[in-house]
């Protein structure tokens, strides 16, 4: 039950923090595709269900929330691997900040990135069927940053269809 409440809080915090940081909801950034893969911010992604929260330790020191479209949610619920074509995962990230009101708690600070994974086995055959997009302030990160995406996923989560995130029950 507590995880469910955390999911709701993070989902709401995701929309609020990203809205405050000026990240687009896919509307204005639609024409801004990631280098290499051509991935864009999906329309309406901030309203998608939460798959799982996460915390990244140093050096990034981030709070994260991974959201998924309908295909992603169905695949996670049924433990389907590989993920089907059409699956889209979006990771929202903020600086991890200590709550000023309650010392043991943390809150999202400044938004850092929005990262997107799109499954299309034919289009992205050379990268395990996944296309990647990393966006900073609604704009695609440079090509050098995108070159690191698949290498990391390939090295560490090849046996989970190149996806780090596990479903939070």
UniProtKB/TrEMBL annotation:
Pfam families: Cytochrome_P460. Residues 1-16 form the signal peptide. Keywords: Signal. Residues 42-165 form the Cytochrome P460 domain. It comes from the Bacteria. Transmembrane segments: none annotated. This is Cytochrome P460. It comes from Pseudomonas segetis. The lineage of its organism: Bacteria, Pseudomonadati, Pseudomonadota, Gammaproteobacteria, Pseudomonadales.
């Amino acid at each position: 039950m507590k995880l469910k409440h955390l999911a709701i809080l993070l989902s709401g915090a995701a929309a609020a923090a990203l809205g405050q940081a000026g990240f687009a909801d896919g509307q204005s950034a639609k024409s801004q595709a990631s280098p290499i893969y051509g991935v864009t911010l999906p329309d309406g992604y901030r309203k998608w269900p939460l798959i799982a929260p996460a915390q990244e330790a140093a050096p990034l020191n981030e709070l994260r929330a991974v959201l998924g479209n309908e295909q992603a949610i169905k695949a996670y619920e049924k433990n389907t691997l590989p993920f089907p074509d059409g699956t889209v995962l979006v990771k929202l990230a903020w600086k991890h900040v200590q709550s000023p009101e309650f010392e043991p708690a943390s809150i999202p600070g400044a938004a850092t990135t929005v990262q997107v994974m799109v499954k299309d086995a034919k289009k992205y055959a050379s990268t395990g069927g996944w296309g990647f997009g990393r966006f900073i302030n609604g704009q695609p990160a440079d090509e050098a940053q995108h070159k690191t995406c698949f290498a990391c996923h390939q090295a560490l989560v090849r046996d989970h269809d190149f996806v780090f995130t596990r479903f939070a029950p």
